[in-house]
Amino acid sequence: MTIEVFKTSLSAPEPPDNLPRTLQALWYDAKEDWQTAHNIVQEIGSEDASWIHAYLHRKEGDHGNAGYWYRRAGKPMPKNTLSEEWEEIVSGLLARRDAR
User: What is the pLDDT of residue 99?
Assistant: First the structure.
């Protein structure tokens, strides 16, 4: 799946079938459903989920909590925009998913 296909899927009422939970969280975030996105990643213990968790708290404006999650993800606090970070995370997750 390309990021363009992922973005096109945002017009649907539900995320695509077989989408990993991490990408589901980013799908809901793009649909302006921060709470559902947060609930999803809060249940996952991976570095990817920690990165998404960090991004969500950065978006929320809770930079202290975001910093904690960036450290858990092994990532520095980004200097790019939220939309750039969202694209970076989605693109990275899609590339890894398609490489399998």
Answer: 64
